[in-house]
Amino acid sequence: MTDSSLPNSRRAFLKVAGALAASSAAGCQFETRTPEAQAVAGGDRATGFDRSVLDALAEVVLPGELGSKGRDVATGAFIAWTDGYVPVAEEMHGYGYADIRYLPPDPSPTWRSQLEALDLLARKTQQKPFAQLGPPQRRALLDVALTGHGAERLPAPLDATHIAIALLAHWASSPDAWDLAYGVKITPESCRVLADANSRPLPITGLRA
Amino acid sequence: MKTIDADILIVGSGITAALMAARLAETTKRSITVVEAGKPSTPLTDRTKARARFLAYGESPWKQDHLDDQNAYGTTWGFSPSMHVGGLAMHWGGVSPRYSPEDFRLESLYGVGDDWPFTYDELDPFYQEAEERMGVSGEQGPVALDPRGKPYPLPPLPVNYNLTQLQQFATRAGIATWSTPSAKNSVPNAGRAQCQRCDTCYPVCPTGAKYSPDFTWDALIREKQVTLLTQTLVRRLVADPKTGAIVRATGNLTDASGEEVTITAKTVVLAAGFTWSPHLLLLSRDAAHPDGLANRSGLVGKYLAGHRNVNAYLTLPMELYPGINAQHSLVSKQFMRVPKSGRYLRHDLRLWESSVGREPRLRDEKGGLQFGDAMLNDWRARAKGATARVRAYYDVIPDRESKLTLDTTRTNRFGDPMPMLAFRDAPESAAIKPWQEEQIAALFRRMAKAGNGTLLKMENSVNDLGQEHPAGGCRMGDDPTQSVVDKWGRAHDHENLWVAGAPAQPSAGCCNGTLTFVAVGLRTAAAIAKG
Fold first, then answer.
1. Treating both helix axes as pointing N-terminal to C-terminal, what angle do A163-172 and A67-84 enclose, rounded to 10 degrees?
2. Is A145 exposed, middle or buried (0-12, 13-18, 19+ CB in 10 A)?
3. CA B250 → CA B260, B261, B283, distances in Å?
């Protein structure tokens, strides 16, 4: 959630460089993206994560009050989001700057390898798959893996340098996350009735994902 | 070669061109042909999906809205390369304030810059027409600060819950504020929906509640009132060496064919904005006009104008909920209408809700990584309270050498040099810039204090000395030696050539400019219709 007048995160990537980086992901054995996303991208890009490791990561990354169902929804939304990504699409340039900018290469291959690395690290140091560790052990491994990652500000998901940060950032950018943090129903960036804008947002109750 | 004949040729299809074409179609029986170098823009039916991908990934909702080899260089902050049907106004924010009466009389009132060749009162009917054609929702401010001949055409966008709190704060700080006038439907209007505060006015309105020029073009084309030629780049205007009249425009298709195009027209209107209008005039130099067309004064491309801003975030002891309608704001003109005494400073003022300082963060105060409940609890603690964003646009008196020139080192596929922009403040502006910015900063500090708040952070325009809401390059005036076009927008040197909207303006005020660009263009359209 950013102020509307501020420019988007400005990532300058050359088309060619982005395309080369994206193509390096080809050949990995993971779930393929949805047909719709494939059609948008116009390519056959392999995506997908080991869901059991990702779920285990989500349990230590996402707020506990989401519950397992809420985490499942948030994790599913993250996967759908990565599946739908089109590398090196043109960024919104709009008012204020003349250069044409492009989105980054597909971050999924890096994020997949980081997920694999967490599992490998767990097997090497704990003799168990990551998913079979208790949350404190998973968090400890995550801290090791995240050495040197992340500034104070939670980045935009695409700018995340680690899948754990990306997963958290993706959830935190959702309208539901903002409502949960503020304790009221704002549903920012959603199309809503104009007249309701005059009222103080209603408090939310119960658990939300 | 493709040849076309028209009574009126309009170069450019942005917001000024669209609304001028609408007026001309109503007031003349002459045929109107409009040429646009780019492609049609994303249709309304695709904008919901385009918006979703913008929100998810930052993708541009406007596919291929520019030509890769047609861009400006230099001090380009404030410039957009958008080149498609509707131009930059396909993704404008819809904010539609008028300039203040003082903007038209800077020299007379303050001894800086130049007066316009007409007054605010003379432009008032065209402001009104622009507001009606676009559908501007607005609230009448205090009459002394916000004079207007007639009421706004649409009721104001609501001062929502957050803005109500901020308005009370502003009142305590001694500042009168009201709902920012916006070309967004506060009620269903002109076959378009009521605003649903989707909060992506910039860059894309998914409902059509925000005015954009495609709506006008669609209607004009449906009624067969204009011919709109897309992917047609006008590269030269050709003047009769004896009479000076423009006899034809020549160019090429920008598709793969690159086919040559010639358009003959009795009247030629440049409505291609502050960059491409003077650029075309400079490109069109010939033996009789070695410095370019309409350039007897040597001022084509000169006096580029705009404004800069100071922006701040205030932490206030109240509860705000970011996202209720983040793109709507309060406005004040209190500082645009200043006394003649003292040093020169005029600025607008806008107030928004803000999420700055209230976002989630990855690391806590000690630098430790936060995940799960720790992160959410930290966010909840940060979410309490309020941040207000305040911003002031202050005007910059343009220097004669604030200019656009042809850069022969950068050319398009046809070998035409691209524009090089170099904004420059007039000496009277440059001398007081630090003082002006400090005055605005002091105002923000006073506001924070009045609200028992604190100044969270402050920043000046992020720029390369470019300026916002730019205008100029073909300035209007009564003296042919000191201006490019007359007070109606007609070129002093070519009786059938008109320059419309932003490029004709002598200055760019201290607020968003689009409404004024359009009003000036409509005034020119009225003169064209008279013949």
1. 100
2. middle
3. 7, 6, 11
- Residue B400's CB: how many other CB atoms inside 10 A? 13
CA atoms of B483 and B486, how far apart (whole Å)? 7
Sheet holding B417-422, edge to edge: B73-74, B417-422, B403-411
Task: Give the distance from CA B126 to its chain's centroid.
Answer: 17
Residue for token pair 């929906």 = B193
Residues B116-161 have pLDDT tens digits of 999 999 999 999 999 999 999 999 999 999 999 999 999 999 999 9
Q: Are A1 and B355 in contact (CB under 8 A)?
A: yes
How far apart are the C-alpha atoms of A106 and B308, rounded to whole Å? Answer: 37
Q: Residue for token digits 């409509």?
A: B522
- This model of the complex carries an ipTM of 0.93
Q: What is the pLDDT of residue B166?
A: 98
Give how far B264 is from chain A: nearest CA, Å. Answer: 32
Instruction: Tell me how crowded residue B222 is: count the other CB atoms within 10 A of its CB.
Output: 8
Q: Quick one: tokens of A206?
A: 């119960």
Contact status, residue B524 vs residue B498, Cβ threshold 8 Å: yes
**Cis status, amide bond into A157, omega within 30 of 0:** no
Q: Which two tokens stand for residue A89?
A: 């699409």
**Residue B202, CB-side half-sphere exposure with 13 Å CA sphere:** 21
Cβ partners under 8 Å of residue B506, min gap 6: B113, B114, B115, B116, B117, B303, B305, B398, B472, B475, B476, B477, B483
What span, in angstroms and rounded, lies between the C-alpha atoms of B231 and B40? 9
- Cβ neighbours of A92 in B, within 8 Å: 54, 58-62, 91, 203
SS3 (DSSP) at B202: coil
A145 CB near a chain B CB, below 8 Å?
no
Q: Is B172 on the interface with A (CB under 8 A)?
A: no
Whose structure tokens read 């949960």? Answer: A180
For B371, the 3-state DSSP assignment is: coil
Instruction: Please report the pLDDT score of residue A29 as a whole number.
Output: 31
Question: B166-203: string of b/e by CB count within 10 Å (b at 16+)?
Answer: bbebbeebebbbbbbbbbbbbeebbebbbbbbbbbbbb
Tokens, residue B119:
């007054």
The reply to whether residue B362 touches residue A181, judged by beta carbons under 8 angstroms, is: no
Q: Which of A127, A147, A148 is nearest to A137 (CA)?
A: A127
- The 10s digit of each residue's pLDDT in B20-62 is 999 999 999 999 999 999 999 999 999 999 999 999 999 999 9
* B371 to chain A, closest Cα gap in Å: 5
Which positions ≥6 away from A145 have C-beta within 8 Å? A114, A117, A118, A121, A162, A164
The Cα-based distances of B186 to B152, B192, B375 in angstroms read: 11, 11, 38
Q: Are B277 and B473 in contact (CB under 8 A)?
A: yes
- Comparing alpha-carbon positions, the chain A residue that sits nearest to B160 is A198
